[in-house]
Amino acid sequence: MQHFDVVVFDVDGTLLDTSEGVLASVKYTIKEHNLPEVDEEVLKTFIGPPIQNSFSKVYGLKGDILQELATTFRNQYKDVDLLKAVPYEGIYSVFEALIKEGKKVAIATYKRQDYATKIMHHFGFDKYTDIIYGADHENKLKKRDIIELALKDCGVKDFSNAIMIGDSDNDAIGAQEIGTQFIGVTYGFGFSKKEDICKYKNVGSADSTQELVSLLVGDK
């Protein structure tokens, strides 16, 4: 791992277990639009990526219906299910250790910007950073764009001096595309084992938040 000044975190599956809220809203949307039910393993694939992409992939849908599904999901999620989440054990200690070492931290998530800001404030992550970037309403931003916005806000000019931490292919690809170092975590929703992370350029992998602290600041 080379020198780094900034660490950027994904949210779903990295900072928070958001499965209860996301899956409740997905099930609500499926029922409201009379779509066929799917099993729990398929439902879990909705956690993390843009919601239109998930409905398109699972149901083979295209066009205006995807926006209708997204609107139903977002209204339910925003009004009812957003805060049904649990911080991963030890995740605050990761932030504390980084701040103690003088590192900057930021958030880059596929959650919509207003949702990202609300949920980060609710769970107290705004104590560590006010640099929180999420998806736009039109879903035009890719993960690389969101990471890049966060890094620029941190004043980073050389993106290789930063680390992206996430649990999914989207996080790894986004980091790789802009030349940012990447650490994958396997305790979330995407990567289930360290071998999954080896498909991408990375500087480490962690099965727990404790292992993540060791990777970032050493055993102190």
UniProtKB/TrEMBL annotation:
Pfam family, one: HAD_2
GO cellular component: cytosol
Annotated keywords: Hydrolase
Gene Ontology MF, one: protein tyrosine kinase activity
PANTHER family per UniProt: 5'-NUCLEOTIDASE, PHOSPHOGLYCOLATE PHOSPHATASE
Descriptive protein name: HAD hydrolase, family IA, variant 1
Organism: Roseburia inulinivorans DSM 16841
